[in-house]
Amino acid sequence: MLNLSARSRIGIAVIVTFLFCSAAAHGQDISFKYLYSFEPAMITDPPEMGGIEINYPEAARKNGAEGTVNATFTLGEDGRVRDVVIVNDLPHGVGDAVRAGLQKLYFKPARFQGKPAAMKAKLEYKVTVLFEDTDKNVSKPKITNKPEPVYPEKYRAEKVKGKVVVSVMFMANGELHVGNASSNMPREFDKAAIEAAKAIKFTPAIHKKSKQPVSQQVFVEYDFKP
Prior knowledge:
Helix content is 12%, strand content 45%.
């Protein structure tokens, strides 16, 4: 076993690559997030990574498959990926697509004292499928608690009334992402509606074919009356 100096023991920082695309024609927005990480290794020069191309399967899109695929692999000293293991998979061929993408991955091997060296790595491939609220393949999320917004007191004497629509993403994992508000009301009403939307409780939308929870964007309406 070699005794390496601190200079020779390089901890490789995590490399993050984002790729976003949308499939509006199918009533979906699909986003992909790739995250590489590398195990500590006896190297003097880190690997140089190229882009990774993963073809998200059509069957996965149709069934709203989302979540995270985790894979481990080795960046070989010969410039080839080997030992690909899918640790956490997604249905409808997503893991196989990740494996195929890794096997075609271009990289320049790490080096130790001028010689190519193998290095173990991990890939986290996160897929988020966001369905539009008009998609008939998905049942809408069920809102179990929708608190009323606080009426801005400065407008009560004027008896201002109207509607505010808030864009809300009801995520498959139970999280709530509140977007922008739209109305012809004073800005205080928009802010009040957004704050009310943040307190919504719900159960996620369900894909009718796969019976799995999915993420969906819904426009939530608030009616303000003095």
